[in-house]
Amino acid sequence: MAKLVSSLILFVLSVSLGSPCQARKSRECGYERWPVKVLADKDRAQIDPKPIDTTVAALSALAIHEVPYPYDRRIAPEELHIFRIKARLLQVRREKDSDLHLLLQDLDESDQRMIAEVPAPDCAEGTGHEQEYLSVRRTLMALPAHTVLELTGVGFFDFLHDQKGGANNGFEIHPILSIKKID
């Protein structure tokens, strides 16, 4: 009986978090600026490891950079920093590239929103961050909508496209390195 329960738990986790085989078989990894998104880019060693405390509103107000954005390089200075924010979690959904996509709301300015994402661990093999991504994904699966959380992650400018709820400047936290419920 214990073996059956254990197998069932592993099955549920693989469906919820994405199994390694699933992402490899369907080739769900590796879209736009993928090395930057998973910390496999050429500039990752230049990222300042000391988190900067800020808000969704402040990050949404950053000046936008001219495109095209480099595929495997970071845009200085914003993408060379780790940010720590407190925000309200509005939604989590799985993206085509297997990332978990979070829609976040500023705690003081409810009209200010942004996106944060965490890659599937198997889509980031060799980065050294696989366990961090797995831990963040496990924590996220247990959080209901409207939870207030604190997350830490690397700054990232995404291409402007019709992402519902994203910051007007395309700024995101991608990847998320840690997350915790604070309310």
Q: Spell the H/E element sequence.
A: HHHEHEEEHEE
Mean pLDDT: 86
**Total of DSSP H or I helical runs spanning 4+ residues:** 5
Major sheet:
5 strands, mixed, barrel
Please state the overall shape, judged from the principal axes of the Cα atoms.
globular
Could you estimate the helical fraction of the residues in percent?
Answer: 10-25%
Quaternary status: single chain
For the record, the count of structural domains works out to: 1
CATH architecture identity? Beta Barrel
> Any low-confidence stretches, pLDDT <50, length ≥5?
1-27
Looking across the biggest beta sheet, what order are the strands in? 2-3-4-6-5
Beta-strand segment tally: 6
- The CATH class label is Mainly Beta
Strand content: 25-35%
CATH-derived topology: OB fold (Dihydrolipoamide Acetyltransferase, E2P)
What Rg do the Cα atoms give?
Answer: 16 Å
